[in-house]
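DATA SHEET
Item: assembly model
Revision: 1
Owner: S.N.
Input lines:
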Amino acid sequence: MAVLVLGPLGGAAGAFAFPKGGRRLAGVAAVTAVLALLVLAREVVTNGVQLHRVGGWSAPLGIDLRGDGLAVLMLAITALIAGAVTLYAPPYFLPQAGAESRDRERWFWPLFLFLWSALNALFLSRDIFNLYVTLELLGFAAVTLVALAGKREALTATMRYLLVSLPASLFYLMGVALVYGQCATVDLSLLAAKAERGPVLWVALALMTGGLVAKAALFPLHFWLPPAHASAPAPVSALLSALVVKGPYYILLRLWFEAFPALMTPAVAQGLGALGAVAIVWGSIHALMQARLKLLVAYSTVAQLGYLFLLFPLAAVREGGWLAWNGGLLFLAAHACAKTALFLTAGNILQAAGHDRIKGLDGMTQVLPVSAFAFGLAGLSLAGLPPSSGFAGKWLLLSASLAQGQWWWAAVILGGSLLAAAYVMRVLSHAFTQVALATKPRPLPAVQEWTALVLAALAVGLGLAAQGPLALLRLGAPVVLGGAGP
Amino acid sequence: MVETGFTVYLLAGAGVFIIGFHALLAQAHLLRRIMALNVMGSGVFMVFIALSARTAGEAPDPVPHAMVLTGIVVSVCATGLALALADRLQSVTGATELEGGPAPGPNAGSGGEESHP
């Protein structure tokens, strides 16, 4: 399990020290991390939840790493997206050969591997203070990656991102202090036994949730996301939208469903769900209004993150809660694949055409048929059309909401799908327009197009093969979820 | 919650945190905002240290001390990163503040990372 963290971390240190070997080191680190994940997944499937005591010290003194079903699922999504980026990035950085591009690639590899290591550590962590440290590591890597673009807008977006990310972490840390003061432990499992409703814990959880919501870019604290995600280089945008915002979301799940289910009142659940619902509508409408493709995709992330927060009101109810838990996490996987495909495609278009204005996308299918197809498939999943995984995830959430009589969430889910279909169609209608092309666009390496297509195909195919990954979720699932028993 | 000293220290920590957060929102100059973040961090650390004295009369609890040490390391890194970024921003744009409000309009914050000629 430690290899999952140390592999990419070692790669990052190596890539930093030997910039010329960045690519090769990233390849080695990626293979190591994937192999370590396969070993861990096999252990978890055959022997149940795995616990690793770092340095042989047990919980109150040392640091525990724990691999359960949810952690393995998140690690697998991370490995998938990061693996795709490892393949996509080398040709992406090539075309702009020159000192500037080489400089960018030099810093890209260490930061990317650092980010991967931080994500793996976050998903395996078992105490809320360790989660704070990994959250900060993740934030540093993400912020610096946005700055790689180096342009004026990118730097402004980076600074704004940093000025949200840092105070958000401090709010979270203040919450950790109060929790420790009240319960005298920071371990997730021990907290569940000690937590009782009281003013101190309410304040602590409000602070922690506030900080995490800002980092996960939930409405109304989403304002930093579109400029940051849209101005970063394409592989970075993909990592940020698919993985980085899921880190704080994952901590929220662990906090509310594992450590403090005692404090999960209907008001809290409905409140988080309501913010999610507003995010869906707000993000989708803004996505419809964008003139540039990357900003459209970034606003779509704001909307899609809203769906993830519908999990709180739906999974907090015992009946049907397990359905919603599965649906929400399947949707998370679907969004990670689809959004990576979209950002990589947007990067391809930007490199081939030299711009990403949606109005100028006419004839894209003639020039980049593979990329256009990838965009269409990923869009299918975003809009939630069957048989995509986006559909399967939404279907589970819908079933849960109807079974529980919470029909208003069903209305939001359906409305959001229509809006998503509208903004996807807006791009596709331009892309499929046949035109006589005046200028010949530059050709792209096949790898860049095919990684996007494979991910988009996965986003659709996962809907047909969701049983396996979802069965994994039962291992070590939070006890509060109805139907979670063996 | 036995001693007044403990309560005073705890409340002071919370106060410092709030003052720092206020400054972060109210100030425009990037250097001041970075300093405000450091003030917020100090507030959190004060709360941690106060908590380690919670058990009156006995030896102080060492766990919050370890956390504060880790927190200080993280905060030094954060400050370094923020300062480097502010410095780069100033050398590229000449500005020491972020232009506009925190929320850019729907079409602002343009998306292209690179525009080929």
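QC remark: The longest helix of chain B spans residues 62-93.
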